[in-house]
Every structure is written in C-alpha cells, then in structure tokens.
Design goal:
mainly alpha, globular
Length: 105
Amino acid sequence: MKARSGPNEHQICYQSKVGPVKWLKPSVRQMLEGLAGRGKRSILVIPISFVSDHIETLFEINIYYRSIAKELGIENFEMTKGLNDSQLFTEALKKEIIDATNRNK
C-alpha cells in the first residue's frame, strides 16, 4: 500500500454462515451490497482467515461472490491467492513452531 501513496480503504466481512445460528456481521453479501451502493466498482478480496486455497476461497468467494458482485455492478472483482506452499510462509511457520516449542521446554 505504501507503493500506492498511502493506505487504501479496507473493510472486514465474514463468510460461510451455515444453518440458523447467529453469525458474524457484516456478511460478504452485505459488504458487496454496501460497497456497490456507495459506487465502488473495483474491489480486492483478501481471505485473511485462510492460509491455503480450498472450497471456501476457490468457489464461495472467487466464483459465487464474484457473480453477486457482477450483478451488483462491481466491474473489477479480484481475490488474492492463499499463502499455500509459499517458501516465505513455510519458513516463517517453521520458525514460529520451533520458537514455541523452545519456549515450552
């Protein structure tokens, strides 16, 4: 974001509500509706709760919510890939595990 001359507007929302239980808000759909209502036409989704791509990112966000965004008039919908097997991520995770193990000896 520094390379783009400062921070960009950002929001947090929640996905994957299943069943009748109360869930965290705002939902992805509510967020998309709100952004579209404010005239936003380009969004970048960063699924921060997931470290690997799977059904919730590959289908629910990247296909299902992309189609909803399009219906709402959002022209540019992009989603970042998960960290997956990134060398930097796996090395950082390894370091955290080793450090935690050493602290608990």
